[in-house]
Design goal:
about 270 residues; alpha+beta; 8 helices; eight-stranded mixed sheet
């Protein structure tokens, strides 16, 4: 296993310990709002701090892009950059809803190299190294082999932080819903993407995400044999925040199915 992946795993498990130790006090926990439907707790901050400290102890020259503390370190443009969401699914966590995760990715010169998504409640560890495949708890994983949207289970997320795009989202939902056996919105994009990588979900789409929501999941899907792009089929998902993922067959069908709604809503127009 790559040394940098080992450090990422150590950091993710340390953050998971912080999260789980606080499960019995979630109803008494102070909660701050960063924006509409966007919350942060001391657990988010403590988990992020332990991740950054664990990585910095081994790689003091590396940079970070983290949800709570933003960009730091790594002044050299060629430096490694760690992209971190210490608790993806904070709202779930605050309600005792067991769908949340730690997400850590490592990027070098704009290319994702390592990925970890850790679900501390279920003790499920998803990992990937570029060129070396994707794993869950040391078992190799692959995207699903489903060929058609008919019978597919698709993951998604509501644009609750930017509701001006709700109509766009609802139009794409209407496009896909009748074609599938079900659509799931569980509240953690990092886990949704990990579930695509291991075949629990056949595909995924969402608007308005951040790099820390998706970085690790993107590499997991790629290394599990799937495809991930922005809505226009490119790789600008970190800037647009909009992403489609799935196995090679279904990814294209999802894009094709929602194309008219994207066009109708002026998606991508200058």
């Amino acid at each position: 296993m790559a040394p940098m992946l080992n450090i990422a795993i150590r950091a993710a498990r340390a953050a998971g310990n912080v999260i789980q130790r606080n499960m019995d006090r979630i109803h008494d926990m102070p909660v701050n709002s960063k924006g509409q439907n966007d919350f942060v707790t001391e657990v988010d901050r403590k988990a992020e701090a332990v991740i950054i400290q664990t990585i910095s102890d081994s790689y003091p020259d590396h940079g970070f892009l983290a949800e709570e503390s933003g960009a730091s370190g790594g002044k050299n443009p060629d430096a490694y950059r760690w992209i971190i969401d210490p608790l993806d699914g904070t709202t779930n966590f605050l309600h005792g809803f067991p769908q949340y995760a730690v997400s850590i990715a490592l990027e070098h010169k704009g290319v994702l190299q390592q990925a970890v998504v850790f679900d501390p409640f279920k003790n499920e560890l998803f990992t990937a190294s570029r060129g070396s495949g994707a794993y869950m708890n040391d078992h190799r994983i692959r995207v699903s082999s489903r060929k058609k949207l008919t019978g597919a289970l698709i993951g998604t997320g509501f644009p609750f932080k930017e509701q001006k795009r709700l109509e766009l989202y609802l139009d794409t939902f209407r496009d896909l819903f009748p074609m599938t056996s079900g659509i799931r919105r569980a509240g953690s994009a990092a886990l949704d993407l990990a579930y695509v990588a291991c075949g629990r979900l056949d595909g995924f789409w969402e608007f308005g995400l951040h790099p820390w929501d998706i970085a690790a999941g993107v590499l997991l899907i790629q290394e599990a044999g799937g495809a991930v792009t922005d809505m226009q089929g490119g790789s600008d998902y970190f800037n647009t925040g909009d992403v489609i993922g799935g196995n090679g067959e279904l990814y294209g069908q999802i894009r094709e199915q929602i194309a008219e709604s994207l066009k109708k809503n002026g998606y991508g127009a200058a």
